[in-house]
Design a protein that fits this description.
This protein is 7% helix and 53% strand. The chain is mainly beta. Among the domains are: 4-201, Ubiquitin-like (UB roll) (Roll), CATH 3.10.20; 713-804, Outer membrane usher protein FimD, plug domain (Immunoglobulin-like, Sandwich), CATH 2.60.40.2610; 805-887, Immunoglobulin-like. The strands form 10 sheets. The chain has a 24-stranded antiparallel β-barrel. A hairpin with a 4-residue loop joins strand 28 (477-489) and strand 29. Helix 1 (13-27) crosses helix 3 (59-69). It is globular.
Length: 893
């Protein structure tokens, strides 16, 4: 006897998929677990099924229930007629199967749904109305509202052709041939299929501006703290704490920010304590910069007001207070974006690395001994950077890094521009010097040529620049520009005029597996002055370095045949009024196999740093042998002007949140040494802890913390940070704590209130966040486990996951008169989510129940009775729990 009778053919593949999904949800919720866990789950499932069938449910009825609960809802299909005689149940009249009669049917009403356009999910949940079809009263269709249409990013020509129904509230899908809309209550999603011909340009991980999210209002406070305690064998012990960060507020598209930095130093000897600072000018706490900004998507630009450092591809940077309007390359698709600076060096011991520009701390971190490379500086940084490496043995390295700028090329027909106006200021927020205006542009003439230039006018100081960029196709890209400056110095009764000439080149040689990331040459005449030099000389009576020649090259090469990779970073700076600065860092790395030891890493680095007549040359050798699943034994050797040092160590990655390294050996002076370094990626902060000991020299312990707090109307959370004041995504698991959520990095766990903040997100990039299903607590189930967001710079994004926490149990539901709800009735919680379906004689497997919670049973299209979950319900027992369902007012039958 057929269970279904239907004159049309039906595609049951969605049902089969849903059956498989339901079985996994009930008996094997955790995906990808170990074989041992799977075996245990099978045993539990077998026991559950035994109890289930022993309670009076026949296997055939259970199968039918599973089929019915798995029917996927979407667009409406012709109705099915159910032959209830095929069901092995006692009361066939007490069955409610209306909602299963039409595959894909959704009852008219309002639903909160995620909206997917060609599998790309829109930024937020939408309220979607399902209305009755005019020509089919038994069917329904989704109302695609104007708010949804705005985020689809249709081309303007098609926007003008759209038709509307229901008094302009719903899109008429017939006006876009090929477009379709389908609802799915299983995932609470509205699926829109839109032919690509109607859409603006997009990429798999990049959304057009119409889908960018400015986030929600909120407050933030980010910090980067480093503390160190040094106890020398002879002399005073020293304690110092340095910190920097950003405080801010978001309101709509505006970002209000204040950068801060602090330093505390304490020296203690046998006579008592002595307190002091690095210099008399430094304070313990300093608000170094106040500013606000917002993005202007239509202009592909960023508007900034307040204190800032000139961001220019042509003119050198200086500090000012004013306003700027700058096209932001980060708003372009990823394949059209440019270059960010990096800092490389070699730390002799565990060390603190500080990167500054004109006294402002840009970056500070703890690094382990050996080569380091800092690549996460903001791409808005330009000009000369001052780098200070404070070793735990008390020595200090200082050098400068000139940030490279790739050739200023622009796509054909596109214009990039930067407009800035204001007045120069010092680091005490005092204005000094004349008001100024700066403008620069780059125009893509055609596929091969770009014209660029700029003007900086500031009263008695003026600079004019003009340049040309050329795409040499297979030979790379090249640009050349000339800048002429004129500066009048009344005190010196002279006017200086000079020129500066720059040549830049970039090329990737795919056939040779090599890349010239940047190569540049700049020559400046003796009387050439940039704005910073002019301000120092005229208003501060300070002499500045007068650069003459600058050579810079960043080069990478892969020798595939022998498995060798090479990296070179070189700069050579000469001056008119001071000695030459030289800096290079070259590294070679290779993986080799020796006997049964595979993937042995060999790295050789050589460096030279000639800065302020101080020479520092050295070589560094690292040999790493994998040991076990996550460990590595290593040998490190270093040679420089002070001698040589050797150490052996062991590194182990405990998991994706914890790693440590220990080592021992001899120092440059031949003394015994030992050190340790530990990193923890915590939910509330990134922690670095280190300690070192040198026989007869000193003992040092250090601690680094990077974290922040974000406060919004939805809640607050402590969290790690990448860059202070940067973009972040707050996730909400509806009050369920300890839920692991993952972005691009290691997972974070929601706090007591069900909130967490992800910071490994990129601006203007489709970021995905997902619940880590493999590590969910046993009593937690994620109904909606994936979210995505494309956030503007500095935004506090907000996304909510549908998560249920509670007991799972087999229940027997009875009405006050002793009868039971009809077969197929739904059990729904307070959030209107289905947590189970009534089967034969009132049996139901329910999930996500909490003690004392009230749930309702729905049939005939509405709630009929209510259950109060008892306090003594337990998921540990496989016995069936009896639940009483009390009729709602006026529903008694």
């Amino acid at each position: 006897m057929a269970l279904f009778s239907d004159s049309m053919n039906h595609d049951f593949s969605p049902i089969n998929k849903r059956i498989t999904s339901n079985r996994k949800d009930i008996f094997n919720k955790k995906i990808g677990v170990s074989k041992k866990k799977i075996v245990n789950q099978k045993k539990i499932a077998s026991q559950a099924k035994t109890e289930y069938f022993a309670s009076g449910i026949t296997p055939f009825a259970a199968l039918v229930l599973l089929i019915l609960s798995g029917i996927q809802v979407g667009y409406a299909r012709p109705p099915l007629e159910f032959n209830t005689d095929a069901l092995d149940i006692s009361e066939r009249a007490n069955i409610d199967l209306d909602k299963f009669a039409r595959a894909g049917y959704i009852m008219p009403g309002n639903y909160i749904m995620a909206v997917r356009v060609n599998q790309n999910e829109l930024l937020e949940m939408h309220s979607v109305d399902f209305t009755t079809l005019a020509d089919d009263p038994e069917g329904s269709e989704a109302c695609v509202s104007p708010e949804i249409v705005k985020q689809i990013d249709l081309k303007q020509e098609w926007l003008e052709k759209l038709g509307w129904r229901n008094e302009g509230k719903c899109l008429d899908l017939n006006t876009l041939p090929g477009m379709s809309a389908r609802g799915d209550l299983a995932t609470y999603s509205l699926y829109l299929i839109v032919p690509k011909i109607y859409l603006e340009y997009d990429l798999p991980d990049w959304d057009p501006p119409s889908r960018w999210d400015n986030g929600i209002p909120g407050l933030l406070f980010d910090y980067n703290l480093n503390a160190q305690n040094t106890k020398p064998a002879h002399g005073n012990s020293n304690q110092q704490i340095s910190a920097n960060g950003t405080a801010g507020m978001n309101a709509g598209a505006w970002r209000f920010r204040a950068d801060w930095q602090a330093r505390y130093h304490r020296s203690k000897d046998k006579q008592g304590d002595q307190f002091g600072h690095v210099s008399e000018r430094e304070r313990e706490w300093d608000w170094s910069r106040y500013y606000m900004y917002r993005v202007l998507p239509r202009l592909e630009a960023k508007l900034s007001l307040g204190e800032d450092y000139l961001n220019s591809n042509i003119f050198d940077s200086f500090r000012y207070t004013g306003v700027s309007l700058i096209t932001d390359e980060n708003m372009l698709p990823p394949n059209l974006r440019g270059y960010a600076p990096e800092v490389t060096g070699v730390a002799r011991t565990n060390a603190k690395v500080t990167v500054k520009q004109q006294g402002r701390v840009l970056y500070e971190t703890q690094v382990a001994s050996g080569p380091f490379r800092i690549q996460d500086l903001s791409d808005a940084v330009s000009g000369t950077l001052d780098v200070r490496v404070e070793e735990q043995d008390g020595s200090v390295q200082e050098f400068q890094v000139n940030t490279a700028t790739i050739p200023y090329l622009t796509r054909p027909g596109r214009v990039q521009y930067k407009i800035v106006g204001g007045q120069s200021t010092n680091d005490k927020h005092r204005r000094e010097g004349p008001a100024f205006g700066m403008g620069e542009f780059s125009w893509g003439i055609n596929n091969g040529w770009s014209l660029y230039g700029g003007l900086l006018a500031a009263g008695d100081y003026n600079a004019l620049s003009l340049g040309i960029g050329r795409d040499l196709m297979m030979f790379g890209s090249l640009s050349f520009d000339a800048t002429e400056s004129r500066a009048r110095l009344p005190k010196e009764r002279e006017t200086l005029t000079g020129g500066s000439y720059r040549l830049s080149y970039s090329k990737r040689f795919d056939q040779y597996n090599s890349q010239v990331t940047f190569a540049g040459y700049r020559f400046s005449e003796r009387n050439f002055m940039n704005m910073g030099q002019y301000i120092n000389r005229r208003y501060r009576d300070l002499s500045s370095d007068s650069g003459k020649e600058l050579y810079t090259i960043i080069f990478n090469k892969q020798f595939s045949d022998i498995g060798l990779s090479a990296h070179l970073n070189y700069s050579h700076q000469t001056y008119w009024n001071r000695p030459t600065n030289d800096r290079y860092n070259i590294s070679l790395s290779k993986y080799v196999d020796i006997g049964r030891y595979k993937n042995i890493s060999v790295n050789l680095s050589a460096y030279r740093n000639n800065f302020d007549n101080k020479k520092d040359d050295g070589m560094y050798l690292n040999l790493s042998i994998p040991w076990g699943e996550s460990g590595t034994f290593s040998y490190n050797g270093m040679v420089n002007r002070q001698g040589n040092a050797h150490r052996v160590g062991y590194f182990n990655r405990i998991d994706d949140r914890n790693n440590y390294r220990i080592s021992a050996g001899t120092s440059m002076g031949g003394r015994a040494l030992a050190d340790a370094y530990y990193t923890h990626y915590g939910d509330k902060a990134l922690l670095n802890a280190s300690a070192s000991y040198q026989d007869g020299i000193n003992t040092t312990v250090a601690l680094g913390l990077q974290g922040g707090v974000t406060v919004t109307a939805h809640g607050a959370a402590l969290h790690r940070i990448n860059q202070p004041g940067a973009t972040r995504l707050m996730v909400d698991t509806e009050g369920v704590s300890n839920v692991p959520v993952r972005g691009f990095g290691s997972a974070v766990h929601t706090n007591y209130f069900g909130k967490a903040v992800l910071v490994d997100v990129n601006n203007y990039f489709r970021n995905k966040a997902n619940v880590d299903l493999d590590n969910l607590p046993d009593d937690v189930e994620a109904l909606r486990s994936v979210q995505q967001a494309t956030l503007t710079e500095g935004a506090i994004g907000y996304r909510q996951f549908q998560v249920m926490s509670g007991i799972k149990a087999m229940t027997l539901i009875r009405l006050p008169d002793g009868s039971f709800p009809p077969f197929g009735a739904s059990v729904v919680n307070a959030a209107q989510r289905e947590i189970g379906i009534i089967s034969d004689e009132g049996y139901a497997y329910l999930s996500g129940m909490n003690q004392g919670e009230k749930v309702q049973v729905h049939w005939d299209g509405e709630a009929q009775c209510e259950i109060t979950v008892p306090d003594d319900i337990s998921a540990k027992s496989f016995t069936t729990t009896l639940l009483s369902c009390q009729f709602l007012t006026g529903k008694a039958k």
